[in-house]
Design goal:
alpha/beta, Rossmann fold
Length: 235
């Protein structure tokens, strides 16, 4: 009679801070001539990432790229999407759907990082809008069924991102998505910027409250004349 085999040892748990090497990836930034996109492009390029910024007009994109330096290139949106491994969407909310619809083919198979915050403004200040799909990121996922959509980089100050005198930006970047490996790539990209950490924060269905928090940060920054971000404790 044979003895029963010993149960297999459980696989060791993966260290959540053991993130992939993303230094060789090309990052495209749609909306790279706007404040947020331009700041992200600058910080990633300054950290050594290959960056292409996109705009509806190639000339405008190239002019912005020349101003940023650090090897940043400029291109029309479709070319930017085609040439990039990871594409950050940093376009204004009112052009979000139209831009993504027009680039569905170019973004097919790409890792897309949506950092758009649907906001409204009135005399009381900023307030969150809720898209029909639930969030900007979920709208992106609906419009780009052949892309791998994540959400991140919502709470960063464009002023700090663009300031060459600021060496480190002490903040956390909440990353949301359906595939953990995709989220880890985005977390690693965030971690390339000195002072930042990329933190997994759930699935895309939780993106609305992350996007909405920007309305609160705007109020904080106006009241305290600051450039506040988000820092998560005990991790």
């Amino acid at each position: 009679m044979t003895s029963p085999s010993s149960p297999a040892a459980p696989a060791p748990k993966k260290d959540p801070w053991d993130l992939p090497d993303v230094s060789g990836l090309v990052v495209g930034v749609l909306g790279g001539t706007g404040d947020q996109g331009r700041g992200l492009a600058y910080r990633l390029a300054r950290a050594g990432q290959k960056v292409i910024i996109g705009s509806r007009a190639a000339e405008r994109a190239q002019q912005a790229a020349d101003e940023l330096g650090h090897g940043v290139e400029g291109a029309e949106n479709a070319e930017c999407a085609r040439r990039s491994d990871v594409v950050i969407v940093a376009v204004p909310w009112d052009g979000h759907a139209k831009t993504l619809e027009s680039l569905r083919e170019e973004l097919s198979g790409k890792l897309v990082v949506d950092c758009v915050n649907p906001l409204g403004f009135d005399k009381k200040g900023a307030y969150a809008l809720k898209p029909e799909e639930g969030s900007a990121a979920e709208q992106a996922a609906a419009l780009l069924p052949d892309s791998r959509v994540t959400a991140a980089f919502h709470h960063l100050s464009a002023v700090l991102l663009s300031d060459p005198e600021v060496e480190e930006i002490e903040t956390d970047v909440m990353v949301l998505g359906e595939v953990r490996a995709d989220c880890e790539i985005v977390q690693a990209l965030a971690g390339r910027i000195p002072g930042m950490r990329g933190v997994f924060a759930g699935r895309l269905r939780n993106a609305h409250q992350v996007e909405s928090l920007v309305a609160n940060l705007i109020s904080v920054n106006r009241r305290y004349k600051a450039h506040a971000g988000v820092r998560l404790t005990d991790i």
